[in-house]
Each structure stands twice: as C-alpha cells, then as structure tokens.
Design goal:
The complex is a heterodimer of chains A (382) and B (480). Chain A is α+β, with helices and mostly antiparallel strands and 382 residues long. Chain A has 3 domains: 1-179 and 352-382, Uridine Diphospho-n-acetylenolpyruvylglucosamine Reductase, domain 3, CATH 3.30.465; 182-263, Alpha-Beta Plaits (2-Layer Sandwich); 265-347, 2-Layer Sandwich (Alpha-Beta Plaits). Helix content of chain A is 31%, strand content 24%. Chain A is built from 14 helices and 17 strands. In chain A, a hairpin with a 4-residue loop joins strand 3 (53-57) and strand 4 (62-66). Chain A is globular and about 65 Å long. The two termini of chain A are 23 Å apart. With 480 residues, chain B is α+β, with helices and mostly antiparallel strands. Chain B has 19 helices and 18 strands. Chain B has helices at 8-12, 14-24, 34-37, 61-74, 126-133, 152-158, 165-168, 171-174, 202-206, 240-252, 265-275, 295-310, 323-334, 336-343, 358-372, 400-417, 436-439, 442-455, 469-479; strands at residues 30-31, 54-56, 78-81, 98-101, 108-112, 117-121, 138-139, 175-181, 187-191, 215-222, 224-225, 230-237, 259-264, 285-292, 316-319, 345-348, 376-381, 386-393. Chain B has a 7-stranded antiparallel sheet with strand order 15-12-14-13-17-18-16, sandwiched between helices. Chain B has a 5-stranded antiparallel sheet with strand order 5-6-10-8-9. Classes of the chains: A alpha+beta (382), B alpha+beta (480). At the A-B interface, strand 7, helix 7, strand 9, helix 8 and helix 9 of A face strand 9, helix 9, helix 10, helix 12 and helix 18 of B. Chain B: GO terms for molecular function: FAD binding; oxidoreductase activity. Chain B: Keywords: FAD, Flavoprotein, Oxidoreductase. Chain B: It comes from Rubrimonas cliftonensis.
C-alpha cells in the first residue's frame, strides 16, 4: 500500500479507534525515517493529519503541537518569534536517500538530536509532554507543558526514542530556546583524529560555552553562540586556549557547515552501510582506529566532541556488525546500524543488543504498552 | 494519613528476617534494635513517622543486591533512603518494611575531565560532587537547596532540580548512567559515559521514579566547565503582576539568566526581618536575576536586563558590585525557609505553573489564604514556573495541620487547572499521592503502574508512595 492510501486519522480519537479496531500498523509521518531500524511488515498508519499547533507561548518558551506537524513549518513559525528547538534535530534524508516531510512526531520518536546535544541536551531533554495512543487503543498523556515536572513516572523520556513501539504519539510539547544573535565557528585543520578529539575536549572543558564540537573531512570545529560582543570575546579566548593545536580560523554564522555535521552529509554519497556509534568521547578515535585495523571501518565523522561517531563500512556480510559491536561494547558504548539495505537490516539487529536483564525489562515494557504487537511490530527488536 | 497496612506475618518474622539479612551482610550493616530504628522513622516531612522493621546500610552494590534478594524471597517491602531530606515523605517507612540506606556508599569512583563525567556511589552528597571537580574548573549543575545534605541517590529518585535549572536542566538532564539493582537482586548497567540510550530510554524512566523501580548504587554524571563568573541583580516592583510581566519580557528578549527568582511581599518581609539583606520593604514583589560569563559579558547582559526592567517602573534596583554585595542579594532568598521556620510552622509546596499564569495564580492563592485564615508567602523559580508557596500554620493548634494540608491541596489543584503540575522538584511521595487524580486519568496512572509491574512485579519497593492507595489496591487486585 502506498503512503498516499495510508489510513490517516484526523483526530486523536480516530487514531485510538483505528488502533483499537485494527492493526498491526507501521506508523508513518512524512515517511523520511522508514528505513531506520528493522523493516516493519504492516499497513501504514499516518500521523500527517494530526498537525495542529495546540499552543505556542513565546514568553514561556513553550510549544505544543500535533505529532504530524511539519518540522519545517514549525521551525519557520518559531524563527518568526526569534526562537527554535534547542536540540538541532537531525535530518536523516541525505544519509538515507529518503524524502517526504519531517514531522515533530518522527523527531520525538527517534530522539533525533544534532550537534547542540552536548550543550542544550537531546530531543528527550526538551520534550516536556506527550499524548499518545497505546497498543490497546487507549489515549494516554504524560508530562505536560511546564519545564519542571516530576509528577509521577517520566513516560515522556520512555516514549522519546521508542520508535513508536510503545505508543503512537499524537501530540508533543517542547521547551524552546531563543535564537542567538550570532555564532562563530573555530576551524582547526590538519589534526589527526586523536588530536582533534583532544582539542575538542579542551574546548568543551573551557568556560566559553561551546555549542558544537565536531571533526569531519579534515576540519575540527568548535561553535560558540550568543550576543555579538560575547561571541567575539569567547571565540578569541578559545582560539588562544587552543593555540597548541594550531591557529584556528574563525568563521562567522555558518549554518551550512553545521547542517552537514548534523546530517552526516559527508558520508551521504558514499556506498556502504553507515553506523552510528555512541561512546565516551575520548574512546571515539580509539575505537575507530581499532576497527580500521580490523578492516571494519572506512570513513568516520565525529560529533558531540567525539562521543558520536558516524562510521562508513562495506555493506557485505554483517556490515561489520560483529567487529563494531565487540569493540564498542568493550568500551561501554553502543552502535546502531543507521543506514543499510532491507536485507541487511533484517539479518543484523540495527539496535545494539542489550544484556539479558535489560532486554527483559525492555521486552516487558513493550508487552505492557502494546500486548498484541500492533505498533511498529519488530522495529526495535523481533 | 493512611499508609498500607503492615503485614502482621512480616512483623511476626522480624528477628528471622534480620537474621537472614545478617547472614548476607556484615554485622554492623543491619540495625534492628528499636532505639536505633527511631532515627529512620521519618524524613524531612516530619509530620509523619513510623519506625521500620529493620535498617540495612550496605557498603557495596553486591551487598545491596544480597539485601534485596533476601527481602524479595521473604516478601518484605523495602524503602530506599538517601539522606532522608525528602520534603514529600519519599523515604517514609511502613512498620513492615526494611529501610535500605545508601549512606555508606560514599566514594567518588572516577573523574574524567576530558570526557566531562564523574562516576560516584550514590550515597555521596550533591555538594560533594561539585567539590570533587571544582578545583579543576568544573561543577555538577543540579543544586537543590538541600545540597549540603541530600544524596545523589535521592536526587535521582526524585529527579531533583535547583535554582540553576533554567539554564542547566534538572537531574535527569545531567545523569548519563547508573548501576541499577532490581528488587530481585539483579544488577545491571544502564547508560554509561555516552550521551544516549541504545534502545528504550530506561534511564529516563528510572530517574524520578521515587525509588519504586529499583535501587541505584552508582551513577555517571555530567560535569560542566564552570563559567568565568556570575553576578546577580535585584529589582523591586509594585506588584506581582508587574514582576511577572518583566520576567516574560526578559525571556522574550532572548536573555536566559542562570537564575530568575521571585518573592512576593510577605516573603520579602519575612526574609528581610530575618536576614537584613536590604530588601525593599515597600515592594509588592522582588526579582533576583543572575547571569554568567566574563565581567564584560555580565555587564552586557545586566545592561539588557536593566533596560527591560526599566519599562516596568521598578521601585528598587540593586546590582552587586562586589562578591559581598552578591552574597547579600542571595542571603535573603537562601535563608527564606529558615526565616519562615523562625516565625511559624510552615508547609512548602512546589507545584509548577505556566509562567504566564503567575498573576492569576497569586491572586487566587491570596483569596484561598483569606478563606482558610492561614498566611502564605510565595517564592518562585520564575523562569521555569516552579512555585514555592509557604503556608504558615500552628502545629500545636488542633486542626491547623489538616487545614494547612487542605489549603495546600487547593493550591496544587489550582496549579493543575491552569496547565501546570502537582510537583516540579520535590516529588509526589506520600504528600501528594492522593492528588494524582487531579492531574492524571485512571488510564494515565495505569500506564505508569504498568512500568512498576515490569520492574517490581510484587510491588515491594517503596510502598505507599506516588499513586493513590485505593488506585494501587484496585490495580493489584485486577492483576491477580
């Protein structure tokens, strides 16, 4: 069935009825992220008509909107008030070669966070409330619209990044931040990966409030944002602090450079599988070096000061899964197979296998929230 | 207030249970002499007390697991306890429960400045985390006002906040990993020194679950590079509504201070009398705004904030020129609870509201104050909407505590009515348990209780907290 023919409830009540009476479903927003995780064999259920902005209060830095709301439209609306989502949501389309609009629900369901995660937190840190339909068709809410809320268990975090397997998100509430007056990027060139990450560690350990720290294509980048005079001061100070790593060029306002980091676009055109490694930052280059030695790694791109590695591998056999997972597990991190063909994503678990007692808790939660396996069955685990 | 009825069978087996605990723990780690149990009969919500069956004070994760396994096999409830500073009764025992105190899990295990993380055992105090790294120019951001005493274990259980969370977030935003022990005594690592979860965000639901899902024995926390400096400014305004409008304008202007504290007229007078901080007694409301950065950056931000405040006709403006003046500005605010304690018994609430609802909520609290005949002073983390109404009552006057609790419940229902929540940082505990129905539907609570079913199928961990007792009883009955 094509997306155009997908069941598309116009309200939360209709969505609940659809789940209660039907299913299993593959949850679909704009379709840009369908190639993430294990392939799902089920009829599509679209959130695209759940797209209303319920509440936007700039003076309270609060947005509440339907899960199907288009990210580009929301970002434009916020920008008109000088505000934005703090976590710089990643756009997976260049890497996946997908199209279709990004939706707020898709961003929340995949905890899609960009370079600013190191300073402003991930999507899960800005998501302050959800409404959802669980696998029984029951409408639930958790969190709300206020920034500080410890009332009851935090199911908002549990839903964020759950890829829809615990519930169909219908509405999401976000904490926002002001768009700063300006930004500056320090660019160091010619550092090897270990030195680059050491430079970024020094930058992130400085008092200059770095909001982006990446290493890609031979460039080591540190971003500073804020009011003009403050940015100029901090960029100059940070440049001095990093003098041992070379003379940094200071580039003002360069969103395209950071969008490329955010979306891992340097790897987009290359053939092969793309892995997303999450590690202790100083372990990033060590793991990559070990994997290169073993022949299981080609190109690498580092974000989050080294803690996030996008890794290109040949997509034959297990696409490097055994070697990558052994190396990353040994270091206490995890690896997600982000881009690969359907056959590979069926054969290789895209999400990092959890130790048995943790996997039992995750399976227990899935069984409680979706006992009949109606929502994205198999997306995260068989 | 009702607590779950103690199981007479467990009470009768007290010495057998203690003996089994002694068999797996060092001799000094088990307490069951009644004169020693009294020390654990309450936390900072001291109106409610009940000595536990026994207390265990393990020194390692393995000892925690052994103690939990014994209690699991014996069917004995367990109440995890950090430093016992909960304002919501989060560590209140039942007579048939074993208190599991983490006070002896008090070591810093690893500090990595290059990875900006620290690994601690969870019995360490909140302040000691910052103390471990401050000489290197780092700090741990969440700073609840009990930070000298409160334990990281309790911070994780309650997802504690503090005055600086507008910029730096609360515990859940600064917690990266835990060693977690289930009621069955199974030990697992969740999260680590990296920044996201491999699958479902179990860490996110463990943090803030009030010790009902498991016991956290070790934690990996984010540490941040400290700013070059910080400086507060104080404004007095004619009314709360004017101060509220000023807060909205500051945020709209794109300035995010690290702290934005509000006090109403009664709070100003109580604090000034106690601390002599030089607060403007003629003001109906006061704001303390703190910004961070280099001296020039601070000057620049404070100039912006002064210009915004000037549009609201401030009655008083005081900018700290020296560290002593900065301390004086904070002195009154930081001594607010002590000052209130000098003049009256009081109850402190922490409902959160959308910041725009402040004027309406304050005027309705004033009306309720008149209706109940009890005074109230309001302190408020204005940037994030977290209120702290302090209701004054006389504990020696029969009926006054009940009246105060009814007043408090009305305020919390009001917070929910305007779009907020019952608790922003103290947790539900026993205190706000029965009010959960004001915020959540039966289905909403069932979904939360389903999480508890998965982690703690026999419902032995921290009984009588978070959910209304009747709701839990119904849920448990339906499961059987």
């Amino acid at each position: 069935m094509s997306l155009a023919e997908a069941l598309a409830p116009a309200s939360e009540a209709e969505a609940a009825e659809a789940v209660r009476d039907g299913g299993p479903f593959e949850i679909v927003g704009g379709g840009a992220r369908l190639a993430l995780g294990r392939p799902v064999e089920a009829a599509p259920l679209s959130t695209l008509r759940l797209d209303a902005v319920t509440l936007y209060e700039p003076q309270a830095l609060t947005l509440v909107a339907g899960a199907g709301a288009r990210l580009d439209a929301i970002e434009a609306m916020l920008a008109a008030e000088g505000q934005r989502l703090p976590f710089e949501p990643m756009d997976p389309r260049p890497l996946l070669g997908s199209d279709g609009p990004l939706t707020l629900g898709g961003v929340a369901a995949t905890n899609a966070s960009g370079p600013r995660r190191i300073q402003a937190g991930a999507c899960r840190d800005s998501l302050i409330g959800v409404r959802l339909v669980d696998g029984r068709g029951t409408v639930l809410k958790n969190g709300g619209r206020v920034m500080k809320n410890v009332t009851g268990y935090d199911l908002v975090k549990l839903m964020c990044g759950a890829y829809g397997v615990l519930g169909l998100l219908t509405e999401v509430a976000f904490k926002l931040q002001p768009i700063p007056e300006t930004s500056a990027t320090l660019v160091l060139r010619g550092l090897d990966e270990a030195r680059a990450i050491a430079a970024l560690s020094m930058a992130l350990g400085s008092p200059f409030d770095v909001t982006g720290a990446a290493h890609a294509a031979g460039e080591t980048l540190a971003r500073i944002e804020g009011f003009e005079a403050s940015v100029a001061y901090r960029a100059a100070e940070l440049r001095k602090a990093l003098a041992a790593f070379g003379e940094a060029e200071i580039v003002m306002d360069d969103p395209a450079r950071w969008a490329a980091v955010r979306d891992a676009t340097p790897l987009a055109g290359a053939q092969g599988a793309v892995w997303r490694l999450s590690l202790r930052p100083s372990d990033g280059p060590k793991a990559v070096a070990a994997l290169r030695e073993a022949g299981a790694a080609q190109d690498a791109l580092y974000d989050w000061g080294g803690g996030l590695v996008w890794l290109l591998t040949p997509e034959d056999g297990d696409a490097g899964a055994a070697a990558i997972r052994a190396e990353v597990s040994r270091r206490g991190g995890h690896a997600t197979l982000f881009r690969a063909g359907q056959a590979t994503r069926r054969a290789v678990a895209p999400f990092h296998p959890e130790p048995a007692p943790v996997a039992a808790l995750s399976a227990g939660l899935r069984a409680k929230f979706d006992p009949a396996g109606k929502l994205n069955p198999g997306r995260m685990a068989p | 207030m009702r607590m779950p009825t103690p199981d007479p069978d467990i009470l009768a087996r007290r010495s057998a249970v203690a003996a089994r605990l002694r068999a797996v723990l060092p001799e000094d780690a088990v307490i069951d002499a009644s004169e020693e149990l009294v020390a654990y009969e309450c936390d900072a919500l001291s109106a409610y007390r009940c000595p536990p069956l026994a207390v265990v004070l393990p020194r390692s994760t393995a000892e925690v697991a052994s103690a939990l396994r014994v209690c699991w096999e014996e069917g004995v409830p367990v109440v995890p306890r950090g430093s016992g500073t909960s304002l919501a009764g989060g560590a209140l025992p039942t007579a048939d429960s074993v208190i599991l105190g983490v006070a002896r899990l008090n070591r810093v295990l690893e500090t990595s400045l290059e990875d900006r993380v620290i690994r601690v055992q969870t019995g360490v105090t909140n302040i000691s985390v910052t103390q471990a790294v401050q000489s290197d120019g780092f700090f741990y951001a969440p700073d609840p006002s009990s930070q000298l005493a409160c334990a990281i274990a309790g911070n994780i259980a309650m997802n504690s906040g503090g005055a600086h969370c507008l910029k730096y977030g609360v515990t859940t935003n600064n917690l990266l990993g835990v060693t977690f022990v289930t009621m069955q005594g199974e030990v697992m690592e969740i999260g680590g020194a990296h920044l996201d979860a491999p699958g479902l965000d179990l860490l996110g639901v463990i943090c803030g679950s009030e010790g009902q899902l498991g016991v956290v024995t070790e934690a990996t926390l984010r540490i941040l590079a400290a700013p070059e400096g910080a400086r507060p400014i104080l404004f007095g305004f004619e009314t709360s509504a004017v101060a509220g409008a000023c807060v909205a304008d500051i945020i709209r202007a794109g300035v995010i201070p690290v702290a934005l504290e509000f006090m109403d007229g009664p709070a100003i007078r109580v604090c000034e009398e106690f601390a002599q901080a030089g607060y403007p007694l003629n003001a109906g409301a006061l704001l303390i705004v703190e910004v961070e950065g280099s001296p020039a950056e601070i000057d620049d931000q404070l100039a912006r904030i002064r210009a915004i405040a000037a549009g609201h006709a401030p009655l008083a403006v005081r900018e700290a020129a020296t560290p002593e003046e900065a301390a004086a500005i904070w002195l009154g605010r930081k001594s607010a609870f002590g000052a209130m304690g000098q003049i009256s018994d009081y109850m402190c609430l922490d409902g959160t509201i959308p910041v725009g609802a402040l004027p309406e909520v304050l005027s309705r609290i004033e009306a309720l104050s008149a209706q109940y005949g009890l005074g109230v002073a309001n302190i408020f983390h204005a940037g994030d909407g977290n209120m702290h109404p302090l209701i004054m009552f006389d504990a020696n006057k029969p009926g006054d505590l009940e009246k105060c609790e009814a007043f408090g419940a009305d305020i919390l229902r009001l917070c929910v009515e305007v779009g907020g929540c019952l608790t922003g940082e103290h947790g539900v505990g026993v205190e706000k348990r029965e009010l959960m129905t004001a915020q959540f539907t039966a289905d909403d609570m069932t979904a939360q209780m389903a999480v508890k079913d998965v982690f703690d199928p026999k419902w032995l961990l921290n009984p009588g907290k978070v959910f209304p007792l009747a709701t839990v009883e119904g849920h448990r009955m339906a499961a059987e």
